[in-house]
Amino acid sequence: MSVIRSIVAGTGAYLPEKILTNAEMAKIVDTSDEWILERTGISQRHIAAEGETTSDLGFKASVAALQAAGLAADDLDLIVMATTTPDDTFPAAATHIQRRLGMTRGAAFDVQAVCSGFIYALNVADNFIKVGQAKNVLVVGAETMSRLLDWTDRTTCVLFGDGAGAVVLRAGEGQGTPADRGVLSSHLYSDGRLRDLLYVDGGPSTTQTTGHLRMAGKEVFKHAVTNISAAIMAALDANGLTADDVDWFVPHQANRRILEATAKKIGLRPESIVMTVGRHGNTSAASIPLALHEAVADGRVKRGDLVLLEAMGGGFTWGSSLIRW
After folding, report:
1. Of 22, 123, 255, 282, catalytic
2. Active site residue: 46, 187, 252, 280, which one?
């Protein structure tokens, strides 16, 4: 039986020029390179320049993804952008990218699921393609998380960085089996009861300010490994696959210990983990497409490979996607 699949036609990424090392962090807050590395695996992060916006980062990643896909802006039917740090309360940051690309058709909108945002946006785009409402979709994950940080809180400010990644999905045909190229399935979850474990203490309708990121680290770690593992198993089970079938594991880059603990719990090979957290920090919705682009660009991910994506973020939100490259 022929089915419509969303095939990844190109990837792109962009990181701000400014790099903030752990040694430099130690001059800002009471911490050390050793303390950060031991607990998170992070050695540096990129920080957006003054005046450099989330859509600026997303635009540069989008241009690269379109070039890799061999498409022009007006070939796109839709832009779905995942971000929790938009340029403005409104309009959507996706529309800024649409304007700058010169895309004069279709639609553009944002998806907000914090660190799970790219998985959510990918699923939204995939569904538009599967029902025939779009043939070419740009999916962007971009963040300026540095703008939400309390730089006196060493438990959070050392973790996050800025950046953007993007993929272009195009409609293709498959036979409805796990051997098909494209997005095989995505699995989304949320639990609003856990809001107080990871949140920003401000917003337009509460404080009329941006607010700062707040996190109960130990509790987040515990839920992360449990929830992410369950989402991964849901994806594998839905497609009749096992951990042994996964060629590359591209997780949300939150914390090295979370990534390693999740891989171990599921039975994924340690060498299959694409890990960029050490150099990027946690870039929220941008972390998966950044890591994915790196693995594609350096030749690790090849045609026919099975790629597993997963993430968990504030809300709580979490999810997984399986893609046949």
Report:
1. 282
2. 252
Catalytic residue among 96, 115, 227, 293: 115
pLDDT tens per residue across span 198-223: 999 999 999 999 999 999 999 998 89
Sign, CA torsion 207/49/297/64: positive
**Multiple choice CATH, 3-174, 1.10.645.10, 2.60.40.730, 3.40.47.10, 1.10.3720.10:** 3.40.47.10
Amino acid at 288: I
Residue 115: active-site member: yes
Give the fold, CATH level 3, of 182-324: Peroxisomal Thiolase; Chain A, domain 1 (3.40.47)
- pLDDT tens-digit profile of 122-150? 999 999 999 999 999 999 999 999 999 99
Q: Is 212 one of the catalytic residues?
A: no
Q: How far apart are CA 253 and CA 286, in angstroms?
A: 9
Active site (annotated) includes residue 282: yes
Confidence of residue 1 (pLDDT cuts 50, 70, 90): confident
List phi, psi (to 5°) of 275. -120, 115
